[in-house]
Amino acid sequence: MRLAVFRPVLRIHGEGDEAVLKPDATEQRPLDDYHRHEVLDRKAIFADQFETHVASHPVIEFDPALRAQATEIADRLAELYQSIGRIADHLNA
Prior knowledge:
two-stranded antiparallel sheet; elongated; mainly alpha
């Protein structure tokens, strides 16, 4: 189920024996700068929730291994934010 989130929505095209599944055309809209802004916002919200409710939890803070994993996740989220910020030139190409 987790992987399905990253797959396109499929619609049935045709009828009977001719019916086939194809990606939904409404899902294939061109990207623009708003999309980049939107994903930056969502990433920021996600990172804030992770840091507030998971990384700073007493169980995580108590265990050095868990704390190291949480720090790595927070670092990777920061890297993702920076990478998203750099794609502006590619969106309208």
